[in-house]
Design goal:
- The structure holds 2 protein chains of 2 kinds.
- By secondary structure, chain A is mainly beta.
- Chain A is built from 3 helices and 17 strands.
- In chain A, the strands form 4 sheets. In chain A, strands 12, 13, 14, 15, 16 and 17 form a 6-stranded antiparallel β-sheet that branches.
- The longest helix of chain A has 19 residues.
- Chain A is globular.
- By secondary structure, chain B is mainly α.
- In chain B, about 70% of the residues lie in helices and about 5% in strands.
- In chain B, α3 runs parallel beside α6.
- In chain B, strands 1-2 form a two-stranded antiparallel sheet.
Chain lengths: ~240, ~140
C-alpha cells in the first residue's frame, strides 16, 4: 500500500491524502489480453471514478473498441479516469466482446480526495486545432501526453461527444506566484473520427485566497494558462 | 452599604463607544483582506453590507435612542447592571470581531462562510444584548412627581 498526496483545495487548509492500492485484476490474472497495472478509486464531482493504468494486447487484430474511449490500436497502454464500473473491449468489426475488465472488485482505497471534473458544456469553442504529425489515432497518445505534463497527473477522463471520442481532464491548479490569484485549468480534446486532427479546448478559472472560483480571469492568469496550453499543444502534435 | 451608581447617559456612552469601535474595526478587516489580495474589489461592498447587517439591530437601538431621547434626564444605574451590560455587549462584539480578524489575517478562508457567520451569529446571539440595550437606551426616566 502506498500513500501520497495527490492534491489540495483551498491551499493548505484541505490537503487530501489518498491511499493507493496496486492491484492485479481477475481479468489480468485470467488472460494476458489486458494487464491492469494500477487501479485507484478516486472521488470526483461526477461520483466515484477509477484511475487505471493498463496495458493491453489483442493478437490478430489491428484495432479494438474500448467502451467510453472509442477505437484504439490493438495493443498499447492507457492511463484513464474511468467513471464506469467496468471497461469493455470489443471487436471493431462485429462488436463482439473481447474482454471485460471489472473495476469494482479490484479497487480498495481510502481517502477524501475529490477531483473536480468540469462540465463539458462550459468549455469555449476550440482554442487550438492541431494535427498529429505521425498520423496515428490520437486518442491514447493524447491521454498519455497529457498525463506526462505534470500538471495533469490526476488523470484524464475519456468520453464520447456526439459520437466522437474526447479526452477531458479534471481541474488542475497552475503554479502560483506570491500574491497572484490562484488559477486552475481544465482541458478538453476532441477528435475528428479517424483523422489525426484534434481540437484543444481549455477552461481557466481563478480565485483569491478567500473567494470562490470564478470564470472572469486576469490577463496575467490567461497568459499563464496559455503558456501551459502551448507547451502541451506542441507535445500533442508530435 | 449603598452600592455606587453611575448615570444612564454614561453607560450609554460606554456601550455606544464599544459598538461603534468594534464596528469600525470589523469594517477595517474587510479592507485589510482586500489590501492583502484575499478578496476582489467587487467583494468589498457585499462584505461591508454583511458587517453592517450584523450591526443593524443594535446600532438601530443606539442611534434611535440618541436622536429620539437626547433631552431625557439621566437616571442612575447601579454598577452591577453596568458590569453585566458591558460584559454582554463585549461578548456579542467579540463573537463577531474574532471571526472578522480570522478572515482578515488567515491565509485561506471562504468569503461566503464568513458572511453567513456574521448573519447567523449576530442574530442568534442578539438575546445577549437586546435586553441590555433596550434597558439602557430605550427606558426613559421615571417622571418626577
Amino acid at each position: 500500500m502506498i500513500g501520497f498526496e495527490v492534491g489540495s483545495m483551498r491551499g493548505g487548509r484541505r490537503t487530501f491524502l489518498v491511499w493507493l492500492v496496486w492491484v492485479t485484476t481477475p481479468c489480468a490474472r485470467g488472460n494476458q489480453l489486458v494487464t491492469m497495472e494500477r487501479a485507484v478509486r478516486v472521488s470526483t464531482t461526477e461520483g466515484l471514478a477509477t484511475a487505471v493504468t493498463l496495458r493491453y494486447e489483442f493478437p490478430l487484430l489491428t484495432e479494438v473498441y474500448l467502451s467510453g474511449v472509442g477505437r484504439l490500436p490493438a495493443s498499447g497502454a492507457l492511463d484513464l479516469l474511468v467513471l464506469a464500473p467496468s471497461l469493455v473491449f470489443r471487436n471493431v468489426t462485429d462488436g463482439s466482446v473481447l474482454t471485460v475488465v471489472d473495476l469494482q472488485d479490484a479497487m480498495v482505497t481510502m481517502g477524501r480526495a475529490t477531483l473536480e471534473i468540469p462540465n463539458v458544456a462550459k468549455f469555449p469553442p476550440a482554442s487550438r486545432r492541431g494535427q498529429r504529425r505521425s498520423g496515428t489515432p490520437p486518442m491514447a497518445i493524447a491521454a498519455r501526453r497529457i498525463l506526462e505534463a505534470s500538471l495533469f497527473r490526476s488523470g484524464v477522463v475519456s468520453l464520447e461527444i456526439n459520437g466522437l471520442p474526447a479526452v477531458l481532464t479534471p481541474y488542475a491548479e497552475l503554479a502560483r506566484e506570491d500574491s497572484r490569484p490562484l488559477a486552475r485549468i481544465a482541458l478538453l480534446l476532441t477528435f475528428d473520427g479517424s483523422l489525426p486532427q484534434f481540437d484543444l479546448h481549455y477552461l481557466v478559472q481563478e480565485r483569491r485566497s478567500h473567494t470562490a472560483w470564478r470564470d472572469e480571469i486576469s490577463s496575467e492568469t490567461l497568459s499563464r494558462a496559455q503558456a501551459q496550453v502551448e507547451s502541451l499543444f506542441a507535445a500533442l502534435e508530435e | 452599604m449603598r452600592r455606587a451608581r453611575i448615570t444612564s447617559s454614561a453607560l450609554q456612552a460606554v456601550l455606544a463607544g464599544l459598538f461603534v469601535t468594534v464596528l469600525v474595526l470589523q469594517l477595517l478587516t474587510v479592507f485589510v483582506a482586500y489590501g492583502k489580495g484575499a478578496i476582489y474589489a467587487d467583494d468589498v461592498p457585499s462584505l461591508i453590507g454583511a458587517v453592517l447587517g450584523a450591526y443593524g439591530a443594535p446600532m438601530g437601538i443606539i442611534l434611535g435612542a440618541y436622536f429620539g431621547a437626547r433631552h431625557d434626564v439621566a437616571r442612575e444605574v447601579d454598577r452591577r447592571t453596568v458590569a453585566v451590560a458591558v460584559a454582554l455587549a463585549s461578548i456579542w462584539n467579540l463573537l463577531l470581531l474574532v471571526r472578522s480578524l480570522m478572515f482578515a489575517l488567515s491565509a485561506e478562508d471562504d468569503l461566503s462562510e464568513y458572511s453567513a457567520y456574521l448573519a447567523e451569529v449576530s442574530s442568534a446571539s442578539m438575546f445577549l444584548v437586546a435586553g441590555a440595550l433596550t434597558y439602557v437606551f430605550v427606558k426613559r426616566s421615571e417622571p418626577s412627581p
